[in-house]
Amino acid sequence: MTAAKPTQAKQQQQGGMSGIFPYIVIPILLLIAIAIFKFVLGNPANFADNDPTKDPLPGNFMGQMYKGGFMVPILITAFFTAIVFVIERFITLNQAKGTGNIDAFVRSVKGYLDRGDIDGAKAACNKQKGSVANVVLAGLEKYAEMEKVTGMEKDEKVIAIQKEVEEATTLELPMLERNLSILATIASIATLFGLLGTVIGMIRSFAALATAGAPDSTALATGISEALYNTALGIGTSAIAIVFYNFFTNRIDALTYRIDEAGYSLTQTFAAKGH
To answer: In sequence order, what are the residues at sequence separation of 6 or more whose Cβ sits closer than 8 angstroms to the Cβ of residue 193?
Structure first.
């Protein structure tokens, strides 16, 4: 049984680690959100007579937010989750880009290939690192192998190099796209949770207005707070998730384009100069 390629082994290791990452982080964030809701927003000092069941002190934002009800910690969890995975994606994609300017790297690889300096191109890949460099390096290894192979037509060698580049790209793409689905999910459900909190708050408000005699002003204010704060949290969290999901998608598309460009240069150079 042959050993796994270094790139494949690395991807398998990363895949196993990130497979459990969300399942660890999200429950922890939920516990943190509940603690903030109960002990920070629900601090008795935020309310009249130090009683969380009464009205918040005038202008006290945290007390008013506490009145948003049980949907508030859920929405805080969604907000924290979006922030955590935005940071995680920034770190991962910066690592995938490599240490230097990616356009300059692709140009340098093209220059080495034009001069037939495969070792120089490999050295540039090892210096650059990242996903683009990993794919190009895999293609260069196959390039060097095909130059030594006899008994194969040039077209077959070109196809072999192209296949190697495609396989390396397939191994790298999951790392680039990993956890983006979490941001996409938050973008959808945060708005829905906010809307649910709004509906619940409005139900309580109308229930207070329907009370016989003078309406219950405390219940009315609580219902309105629940509606407004849940709406704000839901829309704000969703907006953050949507903006960064699109931002990261564009960055991944740019990296994929550079990978395709470098792979195309590799196969075309071999087709023109290989043997």
So the answer is: 71, 74, 75, 78, 230, 234
Tell me the pLDDT tens digit for each residue of 9-62.
Answer: 444 444 444 455 788 899 999 999 999 999 999 999 998 889 888 878 877 888
Coil, strand, or helix at residue 47?
A: strand
For residue 155, which amino acid is it? D
* pLDDT per position as a tens digit, 109-156: 888 888 888 889 899 999 998 888 999 899 999 888 888 887 788 888
Q: Which of 244, 231, 228 is nearest to 75 (CA)?
A: 231
Helix 154-177 to helix 6-35 angle, to the nearest 10 degrees?
10
Q: Which domain holds residue 137?
A: 20-273
- Residue 83: which of 253, 239, 254 has the closest Cα? 239
pLDDT, tens only, 60-116: 888 888 888 888 999 999 999 999 999 999 998 988 888 888 888 888 988 888 888
Residue 253 lies in a domain: yes
Is residue 69 in some structural domain?
yes
Name the β-bridge partners of 47: 56
Given a contact cutoff of 8 angstroms between Cβ atoms, the answer to whether 183 and 244 are in contact is yes
State the total domains in the chain.
Answer: 1
Q: Is residue 7 part of a domain?
A: no
The answer to whether the CB of 168 falls within 8 A of the CB of 134 is: yes
Q: Are 77 and 182 in contact (CB under 8 A)?
A: no
CA distances from 73 to 66, 69, 110, 211 (A): 9, 8, 53, 29
DSSP 56: B
Asked whether residue 118 is domain-assigned, the answer is yes
Residue 259, classed as helix, strand or coil, is helix
Mention every residue, 6+ apart, whose C-beta is less than 8 A from residue 60.
46, 47
Which of these, 91, 151, 137, lies nearest to 263 by C-alpha position? 137
